[in-house]
From TrEMBL:
Keywords recorded for this protein, A-Z: Membrane, Transmembrane, Transmembrane helix
Domain of life: Eukaryota
Protein name: Uncharacterized protein
Record-annotated membrane-spanning stretches: 65-85, 92-110, 172-195, 215-237, 243-271, 292-321, 341-364
């Protein structure tokens, strides 16, 4: 070996001496402060990447619990009053809407219990309106694709329970219940108007009509439409299939709204119809008080279907927009307004059960009469 690599003089190589000398000159390289800082940074990063963020513990929402108790009380009261009413088309109208309301209330109670035992936690409650923003690169007609997910966010906002967004099953069941009540009200209202008009025009026939079976058959369509709404919101389908299905849903809702408006307008002429003596002395309440019942139901319809207006506005504007795009029309439509209507439609799912139960007690004649007799002693017959 050469003398350049082996040196037995006891002195280190020049390169090593130079390195040590530079280290001694720069004390920051070997200082305890730098070493401690480096270790702390490494440990902090390790903790940050391995430990999940702490969620807020379960805190019951008193507003949610109070409103849920009120909804259950109203449903039980309506069901109890229904048991005291004889064969009546308004009774079947209410009963076929109480059933999904009862299921929804039961599931809300289950959700309340599950939220208290789940690990998802809660968030802070506030009354501010939750305005959902549209997703990027999507049109106004694409709101239905994310209806279940958006409704879960709305439920989380107003209930404070994160279980609605962490577990999709809870948002799906809640959406199915709310959407079915929406469609059932639309279809059942037209059926009630049919029998209310018939009680004035053909009072001798309505007594023998299969009223219960008519309401059972009409519920098949809301079940089908609710299933379509839910499946479209959960699963991705081709765009042409989605547009076709959505067109059927929107045109049906607009058509039903037009029919209800026409039936409401036709009711004004039936109020002028003269009642004969047979009608006045009829033992059937739905024949004897047919005009009063129709008048109160018209008011009920106007109030309860004011909650349907956001969906009808969204459906009408999007249909007009699609037709304009197809035919090449350059008309201006307030699509930003339509984009705000669909989230409002989902939010009103939370309001519709209370509006229906309260208005049914006040404006539907058989329930109004029995409710007043039960709570007002001066209205009772001795």
């Amino acid at each position: 070996m050469s003398d350049e690599t082996l040196d037995f003089s006891g002195n280190g190589p020049e390169e090593v001496q130079t390195l040590l000398t530079n280290s001694e000159v720069d004390p920051g390289l070997l200082s305890n402060e730098t070493t401690t800082t480096t270790v702390v940074d490494v440990v902090t990063k390790a903790i940050t990447t391995t430990i999940a963020p702490t969620l807020a513990g379960y805190q019951p929402n008193p507003y949610r619990i109070g409103l849920l108790a009120l909804k259950c009380l109203l449903i039980i009261l309506l069901f109890t009053l229904s048991c005291t009413i004889r064969r009546d088309f308004l009774k079947y109208f209410v009963l076929f809407l109480i059933i999904p309301l009862f299921i929804e209330a039961g599931f809300d109670i289950f959700t309340e219990i599950h939220a208290s035992t789940a690990i998802f936690g809660t968030q802070q409650f506030d009354w501010e309106y939750f305005n959902l923003a549209p997703r990027d690169n999507e049109t106004v007609t694409d709101w239905q694709k994310h209806a279940v997910e958006n409704y879960g966010q709305i439920l989380q906002k107003y209930t404070t329970y994160q279980v609605y967004t962490k577990d999709q099953l809870f948002s799906i069941v809640s959406y199915v219940a709310g959407d079915f009540i929406f469609w059932s009200l639309l279809f059942s209202t037209t059926t009630v108007f049919h029998y209310a008009h018939k009680a004035i025009v053909r009072p001798e026939q309505i007594t023998y009509d299969p009223i219960c079976s008519s309401f059972i058959k009409i519920q098949i369509v809301p079940v089908l439409f609710t299933a379509i709404d839910t499946l479209v919101s959960i699963y991705a389908i081709p765009q042409w299939s989605y547009l076709f299905v959505l067109f059927v849903l929107r045109i049906t809702a607009c058509t039903l709204s037009f029919i209800i408006f026409t039936q409401t307008f036709a009711s004004l002429f039936l109020f002028c119809r003269r009642k004969d003596e047979v009608t006045k002395t009829s033992p059937h309440e739905h024949v004897r008080n047919s005009k009063l019942r129709l008048f109160l139901f018209v008011i009920f319809t106007l109030l309860i279907h004011a909650l349907t207006a956001p969906y009808i506005i969204w459906a009408g504007l999007t249909i007009a927009y699609d037709v304009g795009q197809l035919l090449g029309f350059g008309w201006y439509l307030p699509m930003h307004f339509a984009s705000e209507m669909f989230p409002l439609h989902l939010t009103l799912f939370l309001v519709r059960p209370f509006a229906f139960t309260i208005l049914a007690l006040i404006l539907l004649n058989p329930y109004r009469r029995r409710f007043m007799k039960f709570f007002c002693s001066c209205c009772r017959r001795h």
